[in-house]
C-alpha cells in the first residue's frame, strides 16, 4: 500500500484517486499523447474509470507505485508516472509516464521522474530501473538521458501499434549511475 506524496519545486506527486477520472481521460484521449503509447486514443470515459480502478487496485496489492503529477501552482493534474513490473528478488522495475501535451518541453517530466526515481532507489531499495520506448519518441528518450539512463538495446518490430510494427529502444538506470 503506497500513499506517499512527493514534492518538487513545481510539482506534487501523489496517489491517484477516483476524482482524477476526467483529467486522466483527457490525457489519454489526446492523440499526441497516445502516439507512442501502443494503444488507440481513448474515446470513452469508462476507459479512464477502468484505468483508475486498476491503478488503485495495483497500489493496494503493491504491484505498482503510480503517482499523479499535479502542478503546485494550480492543483491541476498534468499526468502520471509509475514504477511497475517489480522483480523483488532482483531489485528492479520498469518506469512509465505521460504528461498532457500542453505542458510539454518545460522540464516537468524530468522533474517528476527525478522524484519518482529517487523514491525508487531510497524507499523501495531498487538497484535498477528499466524503460522501453519507441525510437521516434525523441522527447521521451531525451528525458531518460537527462536523468542518466543509458541505451542498452534495440528490439526491432517488438510492438504492433495501429497496424504498424514499432521498434523498441531499451534504457536502463542503475543505482550506481544515479549516485555517481
Ligand atoms: C515524453 C514526455 C513525458 C516528455 O515530457 P516533457 O515534460 O515534455 O519532458 P521535459 O520537458 O522534461 O524534457 C523533454 C526534452 O525533450 C526535448 N525534445 C522534445 N521533443 C524533441 C524533438 N522533437 N527533438 C529534439 N528534442 C526534443 C526537449 O527539448 C527537452 O529536452 P531539453 O530539456 O534538453 O530541452 C511527454 O512528451 C509525453 O507525455 N509524451 C506522451 C507519452 C509518452 O510518450 N510517454 C513515454 C512513453 S515511454
UniProtKB/TrEMBL annotation:
Species of the source: Massilia norwichensis
Phylogenetic classification of the source organism: Bacteria, Pseudomonadati, Pseudomonadota, Betaproteobacteria, Burkholderiales
Sequence ranges assigned to domain N-acetyltransferase in this UniProt record: 11-176
Protein name: GNAT family N-acetyltransferase
Amino acid at each position: 500500500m503506497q500513499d506517499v506524496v512527493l514534492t518538487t519545486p513545481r510539482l506534487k506527486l501523489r496517489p491517484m484517486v477516483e476524482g482524477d477520472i476526467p483529467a486522466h481521460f483527457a490525457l489519454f484521449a489526446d492523440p499526441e499523447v497516445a502516439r507512442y503509447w501502443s494503444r488507440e486514443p481513448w474515446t470513452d470515459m469508462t476507459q479512464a474509470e477502468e484505468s483508475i480502478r486498476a491503478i488503485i487496485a495495483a497500489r493496494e496489492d503493491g504491484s505498482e507505485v503510480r503517482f499523479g503529477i499535479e502542478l503546485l501552482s494550480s492543483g491541476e493534474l498534468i499526468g502520471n508516472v509509475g514504477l511497475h513490473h517489480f522483480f523483488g528478488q532482483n531489485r528492479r522495475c520498469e518506469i512509465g509516464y505521460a504528461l498532457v501535451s500542453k505542458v510539454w518541453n518545460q522540464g516537468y517530466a524530468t522533474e517528476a521522474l527525478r522524484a519518482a526515481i529517487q523514491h525508487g532507489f531510497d524507499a523501495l531499495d531498487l538497484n535498477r530501473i528499466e524503460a522501453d520506448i519507441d525510437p521516434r519518441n525523441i522527447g521521451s528518450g531525451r528525458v531518460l538521458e537527462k536523468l542518466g539512463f543509458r541505451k542498452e538495446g534495440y528490439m526491432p518490430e517488438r510492438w504492433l501499434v495501429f497496424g504498424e510494427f514499432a521498434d523498441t529502444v531499451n534504457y536502463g538506470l542503475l543505482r550506481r549511475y544515479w549516485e555517481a
